[in-house]
Design goal:
Chain A has 166 residues and is α+β, with helices and mostly antiparallel strands. Helix content of chain A is 33%, strand content 20%. In chain A, α1 packs across α3 and α2 crosses α3. The model of chain A has no long low-confidence stretch (mean pLDDT 93). Classes of the chains: A alpha+beta (166), B alpha/beta (391). The interface between A and B is medium-sized, with 14 and 27 residues.
């Protein structure tokens, strides 16, 4: 068996591109036994390396009414816990889809989703900005998506190659 | 009116690939495993570098040899990756694709009647290029049953007083076969013993999956008797940019340059600048593409073996070359019938030489979905005739 960590990375790479690939298909691609691949996938599901399997959706195709925004947050770190405590208070709100601690002019970057723009305004004004240790917020509503998770959302360019070439 | 064509052209048979292309063109919903070029588009940073250069006015000729910066990058790359040193000012020539480099090589070395040993099956252009250069192709079959085998004795048996060169291509189009270091050493010994030149087309060198590619001129004593040919088309997904190169001793490069300067002048400057970018920042893209081809190789070879079409293990390039010898079809009949009934395009092995009879070339420079769909369709084709492995 290849080095286990290396093999796990290879499996994750395949599943990150297409989570519908079966253990048997992955085993052929990596020249491994199906049992080995199944075992490693189960291990990664159990230890939460793999959190979920889901589709990357082009929301513009389904005319979703949901609104998303990116919110930059500046906040004060707390002794002993740094930004972890305030981050925890923020990520528990279901509106927060993603939360990152980042370097630069602000501290936390949130991706927030709401049914309407009004919902998000309410969340920012009533919930987020009023938290202790939050010093300021800057909210940017998403207007159009061009690329999502590595996928270009406009209809793809046509195959340019000839059908048969030497 | 008389026929104005030259005799040599009249005698060159039309390409089997072209005939098959004419059949496929216009058909709808064809899954093609017949495309001998990457299905990836050129990485964007490479395209962008070329666009920027044009915007900045890089629209002129370059030196006949090609941009010095590109030749320096190639020399550095060959030294770093394959442990072979070339002097960029004297020993490297930038060409319009590796095809031009091959053409120049044989036009530069062949006197009428000089014999060139070519392994069969081989890339469609090899025999015609040698012929057009006035050389005499001496074709050696590498097929043994369902397999592709290198046998140095066959090379020795075919050497005459007129033999000038051995022409090798590895990993190979159409078989995917590469040469191990041991096999290359056997070729080197023959070249040394009979004072032969080796023209080594290593365009697929970076697409080697099972071991590290060994470049022929890196073998002891071989740099002086090798014309190394390579390019950017396959590894960097840059087929349409048409940038190749030859690396060889100075007197041979000078001879090739004489032809190049009068017929081509230089390779297009924007493409050369794109190639510089490919070598500066494109190796990561190339590794990712190679990794993807490697997975597809495993899937297609496994697939053909499972449906009972034994597939010689392709160590590189992006071609599988399964045998159909157990089926009641010639290669051409199989490909035509498969195309007609299942809308799957594969190329008859005979397009690559007589030894290709009983084989089909299937390019896995296609999406995994298309590879799987093609395998499923081929399996149904066999089942319908009771030709699947379980009967």
């Amino acid at each position: 068996m290849k080095d286990e960590l290396h093999l796990k990375r290879e499996i994750l790479e395949i599943l990150s591109v297409d989570c519908t690939k079966t253990a048997s298909e992955i085993a052929v691609m990596l020249n491994q036994s199906e049992e080995t691949v199944s075992l490693l996938i189960r291990q990664m599901e159990k230890d939460k390396t793999i959190l979920a399997y889901r589709a990357v959706v082009n929301r513009q195709k389904v005319e979703s009414t949901k609104t998303q925004c990116i919110i930059e947050v500046t906040c004060s770190p707390q002794r002993g816990v740094g930004f972890d405590a305030i981050a925890q208070r923020i990520y528990k709100f279901p509106e927060v889809r993603s939360l990152f601690l980042i370097s630069g002019g602000f501290d936390l970057l949130l991706i927030v989703e709401g049914e309407t723009m009004k919902d998000i305004c309410f969340f920012v004004a009533e919930k987020l900005a009023t938290l202790d240790h939050v010093k300021g917020t800057s909210t940017h509503f998403l207007l159009k998506r061009y690329k999502e998770d590595g996928f270009i959302l406009e209809d793809g360019e046509k195959e340019q190659r000839l059908a048969i070439t030497p | 009116m008389k026929d104005f064509r030259a005799e040599v052209i009249k005698n060159i048979p039309p390409s089997g690939i072209r005939a098959f292309f004419e059949l496929v063109i216009g058909m709808e919903d064809v899954i093609s495993l017949g495309v001998g070029e990457p299905d990836f588009v050129t990485p964007w940073h490479i395209c962008e570098a070329a666009i920027y250069s044009v915007e900045k006015g890089a629209t002129s000729y370059t030196s006949n040899l090609g941009l010095l910066e590109l030749r320096e990058k190639i020399a550095d790359y060959l030294c770093r990756k394959f442990d072979v040193s070339y002097e960029p000012k004297k020993e490297i020539l930038i060409t319009v694709g590796a095809s031009e480099a091959i053409d120049l090589a044989f036009r530069a070395i062949c006197n009428p009647g000089d014999e060139v040993i070519i392994f069969d099956p081989s890339y469609v252009a090899y025999v015609p290029i040698v012929t057009l250069a006035g050389g005499k192709p001496v074709v050696i079959s590498m097929v043994e049953g369902d397999d592709i085998i290198f046998d140095v004795n066959k090379v020795r048996e075919n050497i005459t007083n007129n033999t000038k060169a051995i022409f090798i291509n590895y990993p190979n189009n159409p078989t995917g076969k590469s040469f191990s270091r041991d096999e290359l050493i056997q070729i080197a010994e023959v070249a040394d013993e009979f004072d032969l030149l080796v023209v080594s087309d290593e365009i697929y060198g970076e697409l080697t999956y099972d071991y590290n590619h060994v470049s022929f001129p890196s073998l002891p004593g071989m740099k002086e008797r090798t014309i190394l040919i390579s390019g950017f088309s396959k590894a960097f997904a840059m087929t349409g940019w048409r940038i190749g190169y030859a690396a060889a001793p100075n007197y041979i490069i000078e001879a090739m340059m004489k032809i190049h300067q009068y017929s081509i002048l230089c390779a297009p400057i924007a493409s050369q600048i794109a190639a510089v970018e490919a070598l500066n920042r494109g190796e990561k893209d190339m590794r990712l593409m190679r990794k993807e081809y490697h997975k597809r190789r495993n899937v297609i070879v496994d697939g053909f073996n499972k449906i009972g079409l034994p597939c010689p293990h392709p160590e590189g390039a992006f071609y599988a070359f399964p045998s159909i010898k157990r089926l009641p079809f010639t290669s051409e009949e199989f490909c035509h019938t498969l195309l007609k009934e299942e809308n799957v395009a594969v190329v008859p092995g005979t397009a690559f030489g007589k030894s290709g009879e009983g084989f089909i070339r299937c390019a896995y420079a296609a999406s995994m979905e298309n590879i799987k769909a093609a395998l499923t369709r081929i399996e149904s084709f066999l089942k319908r005739r009771g030709l699947n492995v379980s009967g």
